[in-house]
Amino acid sequence: MAASAPTWLEAVGLTKRYGGVLALDGASVAVRPGEVHGLVGANGAGKSTLVKCLTGMVRPTSGSVLVGARPLQLGRPVDSLRAGIASVPQELTVAPTLTVAENIMLGHEPRGLLGWVRERESRRRAQEALASVSLDVPVSARVGQLPLIEQRLVMIARALSFDARLVIFDEPTATVAPHEAAVLLETIRDLAARGVAVLYVSHHLREIEDLCDSVTVLRDGRVVADLGRATHAALVELLAPEATSAQHPGRSERAAGDVLLDVRSVSGPRLHDVSLAVAAGEIVGLAGLVGSGARELLLTVCGAAPFSAGSIMLGGRGLRSGNALRAVECGAGFLPGDRSLATFPSQVVRHNVALPSLRRFARFGFVDLGAEKSAVTALLDRVALRASPEAPITSLSGGNQQKTLVARWIGSNARLLLLDDPTAGVDVASRPEIHAQVRALSDAGVAVLLVSTDAEELAELSDRIVVFEHGAVTGELTRDLLTPVRVLAAMTGQALAAICKEDA
Amino acid sequence: MSARGERVLGAITGRVRLRSSARGVAERWSLVLAFVGAFVFFAVARPSTFLTWDNTRAILDDSSALCVLAAGVTVVLVIGEFDLSVGFVAGLAAAAGVSVMAFHGWSVGAAVAIALAAGAMAGVASGIAVAYVRIPSFIATLAVGSIAAAIELAITKTAIFEGLSPSYLEIATTRVWTVPLRVIIAAAVVLALLVLLRTTVFGRHAAAVGDNPAAARLTGVPVGRVRVIAFMLAGLAAAIAAVLVTSSASQYYPNLGTGYLLPAYAAAFLGLSLGGGLRFNIVGSYIGVLLLAMVTTGLTMMNQPSWVAALVQGVVLLVAVASVSVRRRGAVGR
Fold first, then answer.
1. Which of A46, B111, B140, B319 could crosslink B97 through cysteines, CB 3.0-4.6 Å?
2. Which residue of A has its CA nearest to B275?
3. Distance CA A80, CA A74 (A)
4. What is the pTM of this model?
5. Pick from B18, B201, B215: which is nearest to A342 by CB?
6. Could you tell me how far CA B230 lies from the centroid of its own chain?
């Protein structure tokens, strides 16, 4: 049925240039009514830029969009909305203290004389929108008091209340429990069955296989494949980076050191009974999609997130739930993927590097500037960063900022390095340098926990990879099994047994 | 401006050296320029009265309490919080110190110690409320200030106490050579807090907490302790200011500290420009206090009614903060 319907939305040759970077390079995509169209690609492949071009949040450098054969005025959110393009954002954007009806009609309330909101009409239209997602809650309920999944559905109802003909979903299942994901997917199928076009953006390839009637694959801003129904394995082949393993051999076998980090049966808001041990000198990759528990474990160990059960021992000392100070004192060093969680923007490089090791340079609480300066200079040398210790941290590129953070934790004698997407947003040249630093630290006996959305990075750096799904460990890839394709397959939800069987 | 000047300024304020565009330099030095400009203006307009050591000494002496209070407030601003209680805490400290002296015949040293303890305790209360109970500092310090005012009135029953011990009044009348002791005390407090923020581990931690509290926590900074200490220092400064005020007035009067809150913040925000618009700093706050005091005195000498001084202060503050906000927006929008 879907295939026979005429195209409703057609984007042709969309290109978006940010300075010298091509975020989107002549991408085209066509969506039909009643069709769920998947959009997949690695981080930075241009998925979000493409979506933002369609919703008017971003004006493309060139290219055009036809909606129902009429050209769409680009770069204007209001025009996109009026044309019938609505999007359901990944995060919840409800106003929790307002009612369901107020949330749904927010910004397009039916107005009466003198601008009064026509309450009855507003509630009636909210009711209609709720019916279209089969959600049965009173429109007068406060949204903040609904379960999360119902808040999600309210947001979908809101998108539909704009008379949307195309609804864009960006990773809708990333942060919800499995049974809630099933509800969302069912809702999306219903929408399509009623003739709405759906653009479905996800890393979760198994969902794409189950749900999507057609799939567009992006890489480096270009469309590399336009498929009908696609299998998980086929998508992995398309998404996996070209084999570069010849240039980057995996790590060689080495004798394991003593256990440094011992995570036992830890449960928390997003973790269920996770156990894991990391030896000194070992690099353990944590693979999984957003919300799978991989990043959550990292945040729990570094004290940025709480845990409610189980124990975490670091170097023989117990860590406390949500206590980052204790984790640092026990020798943990955290490099967050979002560098705004690590840098101090109005301070110089020296202050940024020395912060966790100040007490070593201090006498009676006074910082010995001479000792601090020579230590920081030596640390910057060690990470091969040619920048003045007195330069503002914000004057450095992303890659160089990341190197200062590595220097920070070398300086504090960290025994456990917690890396979250260490090369995201980092220039191409800095990437191998940062990898070399991590390897060197590991060779010197530092234990490393690595979370990355980049399968190639995980395969290159890790000694072994622990796979997460729905907050629990689902398996492990040992060194002999580490290839980017297998890692990508595992982290996008393919069962490990299947991955290993294929190769056998 | 010379590169050396930039370095000296950077050394004073601990500021990152900004790109030395002409506009940035002008903005950076705007407070100093305003200070010098106002000084020259009044010196030319009233050379025989304004441009005298007696007048300079009087301005420094009269603003000594505000200098101390502004320096304390600046420490809290550096960690990215507000302390609205300092005026009330000064009143409480004054009441506590003066009443043990007047009613119980305690010595001057003991009375000052009681005043300082009262100020520090009020600061610690605010600090704990902000750091561990996680109440926004605006609300927490408003509440602590209200409680401090209540205790003050409970102690003093809104009475005015006179007849303080002569040796207590000497705090305000003693001169070292020709410099009033109050000016020296204020300068010492300002210098101590400057050294604390610029050269100690606590100072680095405070700047980190003010700059990015989440990152500070994840980098192993004891964020809670830093916050409590910062509020305690502000409370202590308020108590020292209270001693300077009561010794000079030779009496305790109810709510003596409330008039100091707004000028202290005005001074600190004026000083922000010296920190490149990004960082509150002790030296900037000090110059801010002196600028406000000088403008008030100068306009009085020119026989302007008192509302003119208030008006000029308000306009100066608006212009200073507006230029800083414009710069901040520019930095974000880049």
1. B111
2. A346
3. 8
4. 0.81
5. B215
6. 13
Q: Which two tokens stand for residue B193?
A: 């807090």
d(CA A369, CA A390): 12
Per the CB < 8 A criterion, the answer to whether B261 and B86 are in contact is yes
User: CA-CA distance, A461 to A484, in Å (whole number)?
Assistant: 11
Q: What 3-state class would DSSP assign to A225?
A: strand
Give B218's contacts in chain A (Cβ within 8 Å): 302-304, 324, 328, 334, 336, 341-342
- CA–CA separation, B182 and A141 (whole Å): 62
Q: Which residues in chain A (339-368) have CB-CB distances under 8 A to chain B?
A: 340-348, 351, 354-356, 358-359, 362, 365-367
Both structure tokens of A136:
């049965």
> Which amino acid, B241?
A
CA distance B223 to chain A (A): 9
Tens of pLDDT, residues B155-196 = 988 888 887 888 899 998 899 989 999 999 999 999 999 999
A408 vs B: CB within 8 A:
yes
Tell me the two tokens of residue A204: 């979760």
Residue A403 near residue A342 (C-beta atoms within 8 A):
no
DSSP B112: H
Of A426, A495, A452, nearest in space to A289 by CA = A452
Cα-Cα-Cα-Cα dihedral sign, residues A260, A264, A268, A274? positive
Tokens of A348: 């110089």
